[in-house]
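queue> pop job 88
queue> type: inverse folding (structure -> sequence)
queue> payload:
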């Protein structure tokens, strides 16, 4: 009964927000149709944050409202399902399933452990390295971090007698849990295909006239990303050290696991070959006439996995995360597209642009970036945050005189890095936090500290690197 009452209160609050915006007179220069769509959009975002129902259900309600109220036609309301980037994301979920099903993802992680896992810090770096290796072909950071990395981290912690239930969390488990999670936050920023919302960013940037490619994104991210991955574990090791510093047994654990797995299976070989093929096509596909979003390449990869039997059609049908993501992400992207088309995003950009006019594009981009970054405390989804704010903030930054590609990429990288702030910031966060190794206050303090570290690295080191490659 309490659960139903809480759900009802959250639903009532969500509807109230939408109704208030709907009946509030729109500002001068804003069309009433755009304002009504904004009301539905805001209510949908609030519903995703407060979660009176699962995200997919909330999205269906929002989609229904756009058509039922006559704000959009039925054809317009379902147009998001035809977006190419939606299918890139969905197919990449299936590829992620292949890594988990074949065991290739776990094998890669154990190989890194066996190589550099003789100390707790080395162990942390091995987990981060495994995440980095998997990131280009696993856009579900939940599947990558929670499905592959987290079970290994928990197993290692328990093997060293580190459990949250008996006061031994700080022995090694808390350090590894936090490092592994922060690692996936960074790796998600490094590739278009490393986090589900990144292809949406490419789409939104394209609407603003900024063409982002897989290669261009990776090139811009590689230097600050690698520096962050090297610095972050060391910072945590310094300010939140584990009690166990030497872990020679971890290498043996990894060797034992690899021995139990045996030689590389044919399904793993196929998965590895498909992974290499996908990377090749995402980097060079345009030279062979493939579409710039990488969607055709993703279809090719999925076809290879299905033809080889590495994945079955049942695997595809039972990948609930993919179909759930298709529903709610397509709905949000549809609304964002029409908010732009109906003139609300350009109006917001002009209004905000006037506020930062005359201060120079560098401080303007800095202010916008920080506001965009730390507003993630109000979001429980990278994608919801991106769809709600990315296009508007990009338009304001460009209007303030910032180089378009630089502004698009800075906000894109921040769209991943801000997930490290809270215990609900992105999909795998509740899984890692839910293990119980860190208290909420500690999680937030460390997240806040690392946010400053990441911002400094990505703006200072990244800024110098971006200058060298001609982004500004």
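queue> result:
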């Amino acid at each position: 009964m309490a659960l139903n009452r809480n759900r009802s209160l959250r639903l009532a609050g969500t509807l109230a927000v939408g109704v208030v915006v709907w009946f509030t007179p729109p500002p001068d220069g804003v069309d009433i149709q755009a304002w009504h769509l904004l009301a539905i959009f805001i209510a949908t975002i609030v519903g995703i944050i407060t979660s009176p129902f699962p995200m997919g259900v909330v999205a269906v309600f929002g989609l229904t409202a756009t058509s039922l109220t006559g704000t959009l036609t039925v054809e317009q309301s379902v147009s998001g399902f035809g977006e190419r980037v939606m299918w890139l994301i969905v197919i990449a979920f299936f590829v992620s399933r292949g890594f988990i099903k074949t065991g290739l993802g776990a094998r890669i992680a154990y190989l890194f452990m066996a190589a550099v896992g003789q100390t707790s810090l080395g162990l942390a770096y091995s987990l981060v390295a495994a995440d980095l290796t998997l990131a280009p072909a696993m856009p579900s950071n939940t599947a990558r971090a929670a499905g592959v990395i987290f079970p290994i981290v928990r197993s290692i912690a328990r093997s060293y007698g580190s459990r949250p239930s008996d006061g031994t969390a700080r022995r090694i488990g808390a350090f590894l849990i936090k490092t592994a999670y922060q690692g996936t936050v960074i790796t998600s920023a490094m590739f278009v295909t490393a986090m589900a919302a990144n292809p949406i960013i490419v789409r939104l940037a394209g609407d603003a006239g900024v063409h982002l490619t897989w290669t261009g994104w990776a090139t811009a991210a590689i230097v600050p990303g690698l520096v962050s991955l090297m610095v972050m574990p060391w910072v945590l090791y310094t300010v939140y050290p584990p009690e166990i510093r030497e872990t020679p047994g971890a290498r043996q654990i990894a060797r034992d696991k690899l021995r139990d797995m045996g030689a590389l299976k044919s399904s793993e070989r196929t998965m590895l070959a498909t992974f290499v093929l996908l990377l090749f096509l995402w980097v060079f596909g345009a030279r062979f006439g493939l579409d710039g979003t990488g969607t055709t390449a993703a279809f090719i990869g999925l076809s290879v996995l299905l033809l080889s039997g590495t994945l079955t059609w049942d695997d595809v049908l039972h990948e609930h995360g993919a179909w759930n993501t298709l529903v709610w992400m397509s709905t949000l992207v549809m609304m964002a597209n029409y908010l732009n088309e109906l003139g609300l995003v350009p109006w917001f950009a002009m209004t905000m642009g006037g506020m930062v006019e005359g201060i120079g594009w560098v401080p303007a981009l800095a202010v916008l970036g920080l506001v965009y970054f730390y507003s993630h405390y109000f979001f429980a989804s990278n994608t919801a945050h991106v769809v709600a704010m990315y296009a508007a903030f990009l338009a304001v930054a460009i209007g303030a005189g910032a180089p378009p590609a630089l502004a698009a990429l800075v906000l894109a990288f921040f769209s991943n890095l801000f997930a490290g702030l809270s215990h609900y910031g992105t999909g795998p966060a509740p899984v890692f936090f839910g293990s119980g190794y860190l208290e909420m206050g500690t999680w937030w303090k460390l997240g806040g500290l690392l946010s400053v570290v990441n911002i400094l690295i990505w703006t200072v080191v990244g800024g110098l690197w971006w200058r060298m490659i001609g982004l500004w």
